[in-house]
Structure formats: C-alpha cells, structure tokens
Design a protein that fits this description.
By secondary structure, the chain is mainly α. Helices cover 73% and strands 0% of the residues. The chain has 10 helices and no strands. The longest helix is centred in the C-terminal third of the chain and has 31 residues.
Length: 286
C-alpha cells in the first residue's frame, strides 16, 4: 500500500465531472433518440440531434436539457474515479514505465476497469437515463426518485441493465483508453510532437471516434433496458443479444446506430475535455 498512487483516482473523477457537465445536453439528445421506436415511445418526435435540442428547449424549457444532471455527475464522481484509477493502477502492476505498455495490456486493463466501475455505478446510470428519457414526467429530487425506483422495482430495478452496461463499458473503456495511450505514445515517439495540448487533443479525438463506433449497438440496447419498467410480466428486452436481435428485427440494422451522431459528438468532446483536464491536473505540483 505504500506505493499506492491516489492521484489517478482523484484526477480521473474531477476530470470526468468537468467533461460530463460540458457535454450533458448532447447526451440527453442521444438518450431521447435511442428510446424512439420503443413500445411506449412509438411517436418519432426528434429527427436528429439539433432538432431534439431545439424541440426539448422550446417545449420543456432550457433546464430540461440538464434533466438527470445530478445523477450524471454523481455517476462520474464514482464511475470516472474508479475507472481511471483502476486502469492506471492495473497498468503499473504489470509494467513500471508507460513506454513499456502494449496494446494487449492496455486493452485488458481497460476491460477490467470498465466492467468494475460501471457495475458499481449502475444505480446512478439507471436514474440518469430515466430522468433524461422521461423529462418532466419524472418529478421530485434525485434521492426521492432513487427511493421510488427501489420501492416499486426493488434492488433489481437499480441494477437494471447492469450486464449490457458492463458490456458497453468493457467495449468503450477497452477501446478508448488504449487508443488514447497508444496514439499519444506514437505521437510522442515520432519526435514531431511533444507532450502538449495538441497531442492530447488528437489522441482524445481518435479514442472518442473509436469508442463510438464500437459501442453504439450495445449502448442502444442498454438505454432501452434501463428505461423499461418491469412491474409484472416479462420485459421487452431480456438481455443484450435478445435486445440487439429484437431491435434489428423490428426496426432494421441501422436502428442499432440510433443516436450515433450525438453519441460520437458527445464522446468526442467528452474525451477531449476529459483528457486535456486530466493531463493538466497531472502537472499540478502535489
């Protein structure tokens, strides 16, 4: 324990909160677009990200663009802290220097840290998605809605969708963090670029695009599973594979990429804000 490094945990959580707040309205439109076509949301209200932003702001008010921000920030304070801290700590268990890292090692560490952090933070993710999807229909404070979900749906309600959430996190973290690290490593190794904001920008842009392409199908199913209320009877989506097949069969293959543009336009800026903030925090003299 004497070699334990607390900085990746603290800096990871702080940078995650900053990035989440800066990109939250885009994440809201992604959720609204993804639940369209689900049985209780058959009406196609939004034609795209910008149309969704405009319509939500006009019909529900500007504050509605931040529906679910409290659990989202709470989620990042827990998920981001555990994810980045675990990822960096695992890497240092295997190699002592960043120069010795390999893609295989980084992917393994990313998958493990993604599954662990997303599983622990799942209740905040459920509440965030409910508040984003239902907007003004979900009344009360964050804590009262937590209690309501627990009382009506039990502990399983708070961990609804935990398997696709963990699967998505395994994909996202297992792609994004290694892509960032390897891209940065090659940029620095080329001698053309130094450890600057531009290097962090290019690396984070690449990892955001890779993460969006890899994760969107699982993200669609995860969002729908978390948003469905199962009080009696069987759920519409019984698992990730079942959800993928149901969505594909009923709405076509490209339904699995619903919300891709806001997903990428969120993951891109989110990663850029996160990594630039994280890299600057690492330079603090303590």
């Amino acid at each position: 324990m004497e070699n334990f490094n607390w900085k990746p945990f603290v800096y990871g959580g702080m940078a995650s909160i900053v990035a989440e707040f800066g990109t939250f309205p885009i994440d809201l439109t992604k959720t609204r677009l993804q639940v369209q076509g689900q049985s209780q949301y058959m009406e196609v209200r939004y034609r795209g990200m910008f149309h969704a932003l405009f319509r939500i702001g006009k019909e529900e008010g500007i504050r509605a663009l931040y529906s679910g921000i409290s659990p989202a920030l709470l989620r990042q304070a827990s998920y981001g802290t555990i994810k980045i801290g675990t990822y960096n700590s695992l890497k240092r268990l295997f190699v002592s220097r960043p120069e010795d890292e390999t893609m295989v090692l980084n992917v393994f560490c990313g998958v493990v840290s993604g599954v662990l952090s997303s599983s622990l933070a799942n209740p905040t993710d459920v509440l965030k998605i409910r508040m984003q999807a239902q907007g003004s229909l979900l009344q009360g404070s964050m804590m009262s809605n937590f209690i309501n979900i627990y009382q009506t749906e039990g502990t399983r309600g708070l961990w609804r969708g935990v398997i696709p959430t963990a699967q998505r996190a395994a994909i996202v973290v297992g792609v994004e963090l290694p892509v960032y690290d390897i891209t940065k490593k090659h940029l620095l190794g080329s001698g053309v670029m130094g450890d600057t904001v531009l290097t962090h920008f290019i690396s984070s842009f690449a990892c955001g695009l890779a993460g969006a392409l890899a994760s969107n199908p699982v993200d669609v199913v995860r969002t729908r599973m978390m948003n469905q209320r199962v009080l009696s009877g069987s759920p519409t989506y019984k698992g990730t594979l079942h959800g993928v097949m149901q969505t594909w069969r009923n709405e076509g293959f490209f339904a699995l990429y619903k919300g891709f543009w806001p997903n990428w336009l969120r993951l891109g800026p989110w990663n850029i804000i996160f990594f630039i903030t994280f890299e600057q925090l690492k330079k603090l003299p303590f």
